Amino acid sequence: MYDLHTHSTASDGAFSPSELVERASAAGITSLALTDHDTTQGLAEARAAASIRGITLVPGVEISASWRGHTVHIVGLHVDDGHSALQQGLLGLQAVREERAIEMGMRLARAGFHDPLGAARSLAGDGMITRTHFARYIVESGRAKSMQAVFRHFLKPGKPGYVPTEWARLEEAIDWIRQAGGAAVLAHPQRYKISGQIRRCLAGEFKEAGGAAIEVIAGTSHPPDVSANAELARRFGLAASVGTDFHSPAHSWLKLGALPPLPADLLPVWEVW
């Protein structure tokens, strides 16, 4: 059983890399990709835990990219996480994330929150500060009832804590992954708030830039989304990937080990690498 999109405390997941591997093993997963946001920091710990548990650890990363004014996510699978081009690219994105966190902290402080940056740093620990850490702090402060409410009232465009961010270009993200020997996967395509026509343009340009696969089964996918993603795979000759986008039991749409099967006519991404 494959799960090729998960997160740990190296970015915005709830579990350490070793805890994530343990839970994946208990759920019956035999091949797990750790794909933290813009970092491969958790892979060494995950590898050690996977060797003990007897499951295959697929080294991965989820790269933030900007495309036509939209933020999209590109998962890199089976990458050489020591490759210099990949790591140089990720270092640049980590600097962008740090700058964004500082600005978010300032804006939320002006909105009446007490030391939001310090609170987010504390929640992030040794990992990167992400919007999820600010959201957790705001929920814990009592100013919102849920993570979804935080994003709706504080962190989306036009709200007090929103910071517009320019990420890597789509072509750059794909190139870093390919240089590191990996397969580039367009993550959760139905999550982006774009029309079907624009989504087809995204898939087409992703393919032209060297993209290998698309997440047909994604953590937020409903049956109509799976059908639409499968059609994109067929139309553009992309392989198919599967992943829960697991962050924590409380906030995952699909639990580890609960993914439905891929449509039988699609090429699984693990046959690409």
Care to describe what's here?
With 273 residues, the protein is α/β, with parallel strands linked by helices. The protein folds into two domains: 2-90 and 169-271, Metal-dependent hydrolases (TIM Barrel); 99-155, DNA polymerase, domain 1, CATH 1.10.150. 42% of the residues lie in helices and 17% in strands. It has nine helices and eight strands. Strands 1, 2, 3, 4, 5, 6, 7 and 8 form an eight-stranded mixed β-sheet that branches. α1 (17-26) links the parallel β1 and β2. α1 runs parallel beside α2 and α3 crosses α7. The longest helix has 27 residues, at 84-110. It is globular. The two termini are 17 Å apart.
Structure characteristics:
DNA polymerase, domain 1, 8-stranded mixed β-sheet, alpha/beta, TIM Barrel, 2 domains, globular, 273 residues, 9 helices
Tell me the layout of helices and strands.
Blueprint: E1 2-6, H1 17-26, E2 31-34, H2 43-53, E3 56-67, E4 70-77, H3 84-110, H4 116-124, H5 131-141, H6 147-155, E5 168-169, H7 170-179, E6 183-186, H8 196-208, E7 213-218, H9 223-236, E8 239-243
Explain briefly what this protein structure is.
With 273 residues, the chain is α/β, with parallel strands linked by helices. The protein has helices spanning 17-26, 43-53, 84-110, 116-124, 131-141, 147-155, 170-179, 196-208, 223-236, and strands spanning 2-6, 31-34, 56-67, 70-77, 168-169, 183-186, 213-218, 239-243.
